[in-house]
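Input.
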Amino acid sequence: MEPREKLSLGSIIIKKGREFGADLVGIASRDETENSPSSRLAPELPRIKVGLGDGKKDAGIETWPGMAKSIVVIGLSHPQEKPEMDWWSGKGSPPGNREMIKIVNALKAFLGENFPEVETFHPPYHVENGGIFLKDAALAAGIGTIGINNLLVTPQFGPRIRLRSLILDIQLPSTGPMNFDPCSGCKAYCLENCPRNAFSEIIYSPEETGLERLPGRKGNYSRLKCNEEMERALEESGNGQKTICKFCRRCEFDCPVGQDL
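Output.
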């Protein structure tokens, strides 16, 4: 496929993704995402158990399919007034994730019907189940930036966004990254109000990791501390088996980006 055809296909994918219900769509290369801080630090991070009930697994490391060259990242807005989008009930997928699955499957079907020469793969959401680091892919795709709260922050919705991806076997032009830094000069409400003080100390340094971009930007994001709050939510909801599990979103709600304040 010629460069002009690839550019046209990228535009078609973005347009169709929005038609199918995505609020944001971008394209990143595998190389950009594989070299992200999350991918490079993952082997060094303490292994923690994630998931619901007896189905917990070690927080994983990316395992890319051999055909992967580009990633289509789709974003779905998750406003504060719709908390049920990521409520877990038993082992069933949350409503927001089910909506994203529909969007990605519709895009996959469209490409199969109209561009059968392009192989596609719809990866699972969780890295420990064979997925990719979506925040880093979204950064490379120009959907947003990684904020000091270690979340993807978008101009339109702040960090109140949910992500899913579709992997392609063709190298398409990337749509990012973007020049966007809402955290510069911000009062960091998200860090001040964290119920577990997950940003209270420096854990990673550029000298130790060889990376300039670190979790929480300064290397002060603790996944272990953040996970404690998630575990508390599981315990209070009956371990996610019988009642609705509502995870902490404090750092999302306290971020002023994308809100009419």
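Residues 3-181 form one domain.
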